[in-house]
């Protein structure tokens, strides 16, 4: 079949005999630089925004504030209770009214008001599943990879159990107005031996 | 026509493309084993098409993702089929990739000159897995939410850069809107884009090198068209049929909307990642985690990448095939183990562990006994193993201990599986309920608010936490919420010893409250006013518990006062009623129960109104003033203007408002006068000081609505 109609470019451009080599180099270099800029700048513009979670200044992340968990009369000595943590939650553009943002386990060992209750997060230090307290076994059990913790939060069988550390205790515990339990709720990085707040 | 085609070919050269595409030479002829690549192309095409249509109905944000998926699934025409096809094709794609990989490795098609194409194939596999992972989260339901949490947490344990990586994919430190927007951009934009690029390269290179045939000399070569095309078509058709059938008869699941505050016990990854999930159970601690979740999977991937180079070596090919076989068998075995661990209870015969359970219960009874009798408790403060030692020694059966411990391990695995199955069942129930509620229309705040405001879902949880330590909630068949009530004896404060009654017997301490199932219904009141039942209870000294006390039998009302109070009245005055009085009693029950206005009794109440048993307030008050025995209800209780004042006000008894007021503060003068309340706490004493209250108003309303059986049910 006849291939070339007049306006179909088919051949290589004619070789530029004796063209200035320096000029050629400049043209090539500029083409690469300009091409690079027009290619990369939009990508960088996007990337900078993508890195928002890392670059965003910490100022607008809420300061840790204590939240009220329960009154002491709700907590029988020696038993373990699960309480929801109610607080204001900000999720990007949504600001939620106070509502459950997590849960804690609370245990009181003595009715001496000076002995503070022990408060643990319900988040498994392994990979973040939500641990259950089993009253009959008096243990915390994680439904995911069988992580088990004693009543005082220590990891059972640390030699073989998947979690890398004990259940995370929340240390900023306070009694206000004589019988209210207030706690600063935190989350900790999972999967590592050290307990580091997120 | 011919002219037109010629013109088209002149302008585009399409004939050349078609010829290249169809007249590819296949040494050794068409074979079934070559269909896998084509089926993968096909499934990818299906995913692109269904994905774009799903996109048209989907909205990625924490308040709209589940909602829009619900809408696609249940309200849009053909939505369930569309979502089902996308859902099952994704899973099939993972299976097909595994088969394709095996075929390529077994046939040696990864060897020179096809190394690069093999690597591209591995990249395509990774992209597919990433698509599967990101897609699992998008419905923002409990299942996807919790499973994906684990995946991103694994990213977080990578040394040094882990936490940054995690924050970048999650879009912050917590799951939320930006997790969805980012996952969606990956799932519908970045990953499919990359996929297309690599597929083009993969196919182009495949064309360049042609099919790698095993023993092509056996049969004559043939063109791709039509034999191989037919075979490929048949295979794709089989894939399509499978997917359609699955989508039609097992619609893709949608569990309840993601709830960060809910303990979701059924968290598991999608089945093709189960082997990794199981694998993690074998590693412990931080380093173990890194080895199990990152290093070993990384090494396996690394080995796959090196296969073309290893293949050059004489025994290399055999090694490659061997290792791949081991990996695939291993993954299969792990998947089975994970499945089995979760499901053993489903096929364990009931009573299989009665021996173990018997011994454990015996120990519990021993402990209760020591506590009740105030004797030296050897089990106190001992761990499980020590307790077993003590028990077996005490019984003189030490030699059975080893056997028992072995059984105990199995029993624990069984219990664990039982818990998992229960959690799965609950997840299914909640998912079903969420969809029922969403059927009324979802408020802008999202479907989660529907669930948080649903008495049917929240009632039992609140009851368990705040009421069940005293009250039961069990129906006539004994199903419902009920805790064991241990037998406790009264202790003399001074001596610290057990008190004894005049006849020398110990005095059991009441420690429970009435069963609230059907509270204020006629049935319930009939029981309350039955001399046989009001104070009924069984003190079981064999197992050290108090059983069968549906009303005041295990409360202080049973024993509080000798010559007054409800229990005393019912037992002494309602015991020998004549026929006429019996009828009056039945009338009183009908009238009083109607105060509650229970939904379950609506028809019966209306009937009684029509029969003029129930009248206006005055007539009703007259009925409650009928004396039975020496007294009438209104001698003690206030009721529509009749002003008894020593016992709870019965005006509106069991109605929503009455119950809310009662639970809020039973010590209010309307209810128990001083000292008459046993131990019912006030749950919302101070409306103006929220910090004083055990329960919020909302929680009490949920609880009361649940007790009254008052919640939304879709019309049948
Ligand atoms: S998440 Fe708890 S054991 Fe793995």
Task: Kindly describe this structure.
The complex is a heterodimer of chains A (198) and B (716). Chain A is an alpha+beta fold and 198 residues long. Chain A folds into two domains: 12-60; 67-183, 3-layer Sandwich (Rieske Iron-sulfur Protein). Helix content of chain A is 17%, strand content 27%. Chain A has two helices and nine strands, in the order ααβββββββββ. In chain A, strands 1-9-8 form a three-stranded antiparallel β-sheet, with no helix packed on it. A three-stranded antiparallel β-sheet of chain A has the order 2-3-4, with no helix packed on it. Chain A has a three-stranded antiparallel β-sheet with strand order 5-6-7, with no helix packed on it. In chain A, strand 5 (132-134) and strand 6 (139-141) form a beta hairpin. Chain A is elongated and about 95 Å long. The termini of chain A are far apart. The model of chain A is unreliable at 1-6 (pLDDT under 50). Chain B has four domains: 20-267, Cytochrome Bc1 Complex, Chain C (Up-down Bundle); 270-347, no CATH class; 354-452, no CATH class; 471-574, no CATH class. Chain B contains 27 helices and eight strands. Chain B has helices at residues 2-12, 14-22, 35-55, 65-74, 79-106, 115-137, 142-156, 162-170, 177-209, 224-249, 274-280, 285-310, 316-343, 354-373, 384-394, 401-438, 447-452, 455-466, 522-528, 556-559, 566-573, 579-596, 602-610, 617-624, 633-636, 656-664, 697-707, and strands at 25-26, 222-223, 473-474, 480-481, 538-540, 545-547, 638-639, 642-643. A two-stranded antiparallel sheet of chain B has the order 1-2. Chain B has a two-stranded antiparallel ribbon with strand order 3-4. In chain B, helix 4 crosses helix 5 and helix 11 packs across helix 13. Classes of the chains: A alpha+beta (198), B mainly alpha (716). At the A-B interface, helix 2, strand 1, strand 2 and strand 3 of A face helix 7, helix 8, helix 12 and helix 16 of B. The complex binds FE2/S2 (inorganic) cluster. The site of FE2/S2 (inorganic) cluster has 11 residues of chain A, from loops.
């Amino acid at each position: 079949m006849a291939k070339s109609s007049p306006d179909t470019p088919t051949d290589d451009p004619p070789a530029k005999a004796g063209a200035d080599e320096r000029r050629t180099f400049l043209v090539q270099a500029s083409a690469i630089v300009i091409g690079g800029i027009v290619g990369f700048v939009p990508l960088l513009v996007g990337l900078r925004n993508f890195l928002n979670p890392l670059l965003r200044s910490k100022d607008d992340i809420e300061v840790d504030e204590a939240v009220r968990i329960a009154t002491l009369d709700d907590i029988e000595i020696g038993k373990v209770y699960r309480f929801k943590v109610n607080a204001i939650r900000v999720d990007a553009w949504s600001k939620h009214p106070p509502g459950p943002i997590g849960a804690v386990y609370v245990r009181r060992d003595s009715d001496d008001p000076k002995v503070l209750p022990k408060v643990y997060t319900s988040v498994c230090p392994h990979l973040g599943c939500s641990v259950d307290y089993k009253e009959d076994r008096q243990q915390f059990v994680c439904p995911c990879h069988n992580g088990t913790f004693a009543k005082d939060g220590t990891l059972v069988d640390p030699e073989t159990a998947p979690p890398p550390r004990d259940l995370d205790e929340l240390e900023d515990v306070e009694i206000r107005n004589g019988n209210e339990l207030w706690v600063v709720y935190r989350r900790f990085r999972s999967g590592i031996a050290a307990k580091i707040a997120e | 026509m011919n002219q037109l085609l010629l013109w088209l070919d002149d302008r585009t050269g399409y004939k050349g493309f078609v010829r290249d595409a169809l007249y590819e030479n296949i040494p050794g002829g068409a074979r079934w084993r070559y269909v896998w690549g084509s089926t993968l192309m096909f499934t990818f095409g299906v995913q692109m098409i269904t994905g774009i249509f799903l996109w048209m109905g989907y909205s990625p944000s924490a308040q709209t993702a589940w909602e829009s998926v619900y809408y696609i699934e249940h309200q849009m025409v053909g939505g369930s089929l569309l979502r089902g096809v996308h859902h099952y094709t994704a899973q099939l794609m993972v299976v097909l990739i595994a088969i394709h990989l095996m075929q390529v490795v077994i046939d040696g098609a990864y060897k020179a000159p096809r190394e690069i194409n093999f690597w591209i194939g591995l990249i395509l596999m990774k992209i597919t897995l990433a698509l599967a992972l990101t897609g699992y989260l998008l419905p923002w339901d409990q299942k996807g939410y919790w499973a994906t949490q684990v995946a991103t947490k694994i990213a977080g344990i990578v040394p040094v850069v882990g936490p940054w990586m995690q924050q970048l994919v999650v879009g912050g430190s917590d799951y939320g809107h930006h997790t969805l927007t980012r996952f969606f951009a990956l799932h519908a934009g970045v990953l499919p884009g990359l996929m297309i690029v690599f597929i083009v390269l993969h196919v182009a290179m495949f064309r360049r090198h042609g099919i790698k045939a095993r023993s092509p000399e056996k049969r004559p070569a043939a063109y791709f068209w039509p034999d191989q095309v037919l075979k490929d078509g048949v295979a794709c058709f089989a894939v399509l049929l499978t997917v359609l059938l699955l989508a039609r008869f097992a619609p893709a699941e949608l569990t309840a909307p993601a709830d960060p505050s809910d303990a979701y016990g059924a968290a598991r990854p999608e089945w093709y990642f189960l082997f990794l999930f199981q694998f993690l159970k074998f590693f412990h601690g931080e380093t173990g985690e890194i080895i199990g979740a990152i290093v070993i999977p990384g090494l396996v991937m690394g080995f796959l990448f090196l296969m073309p180079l290893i293949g050059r070596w004489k025994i290399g090919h055999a090694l490659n095939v061997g290792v791949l076989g081991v990996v695939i068998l291993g993954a299969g075995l792990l998947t089975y183990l994970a499945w089995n661990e979760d499901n053993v209870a489903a096929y364990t015969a009931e009573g299989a562990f009665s021996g173990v359970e018997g011994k454990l219960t015996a120990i519990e009874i021993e402990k209760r006994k020591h506590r009740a009798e105030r004797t030296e408790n050897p089990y106190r403060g001992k761990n499980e193993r020590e307790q077993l030692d003590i028990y077996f020694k005490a019984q003189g059966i030490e030699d059975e201990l080893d056997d028992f411990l072995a059984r105990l391990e199995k029993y624990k695995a069984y219990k664990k599986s039982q818990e998992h199955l229960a959690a799965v069942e609950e997840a299914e129930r909640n998912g079903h309920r969420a969809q029922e509620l969403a059927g009324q229309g979802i408020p802008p705040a999202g479907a989660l608010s529907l669930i948080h405001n649903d008495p049917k879902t929240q009632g039992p949880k609140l009851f368990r936490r705040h009421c069940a330590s005293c009250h039961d909630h069990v129906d006539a068949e004994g199903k419902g919420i009920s805790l064991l009530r241990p037998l406790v004896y009264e202790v003399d404060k001074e001596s610290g010893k057990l008190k004894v009654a005049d006849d020398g017997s110990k005095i059991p301490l009441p420690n429970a409250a009435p069963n609230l199932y059907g509270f204020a219904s006629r049935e319930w009141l009939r029981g309350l006013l039955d001399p046989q039942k009001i104070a009924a209870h069984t003190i079981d000294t064999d197992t050290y518990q108090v059983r069968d006390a549906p009303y005041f039998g295990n409360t202080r009302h049973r024993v509080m006062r000798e010559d007054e109070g409800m229990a005393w009245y019912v037992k002494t005055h309602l015991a020998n009623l004549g026929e006429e009085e019996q009828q009056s009693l039945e009338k009183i029950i009908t009238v009083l129960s109607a105060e509650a206005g229970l939904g379950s009794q609506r028809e019966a109440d209306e009937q009684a109104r029509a029969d003029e048993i129930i009248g206006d307030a005055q007539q009703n008050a007259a009925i409650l003033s009928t004396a039975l025995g020496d007294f009438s209800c209104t001698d003690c209780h206030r009721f529509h203007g009749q002003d008894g004042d020593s016992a709870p006000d019965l005006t509106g008894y069991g109605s929503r408002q009455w119950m809310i007021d009662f639970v809020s503060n039973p010590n209010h003068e309307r209810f128990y006068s001083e000292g008459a309340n046993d131990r019912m706490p006030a749950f919302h004493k101070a409306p103006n000081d929220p910090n004083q209250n055990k329960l919020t108003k909302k929680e009490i309303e949920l609880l009361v609505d649940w007790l009254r059986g008052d919640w939304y049910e879709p019309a049948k």
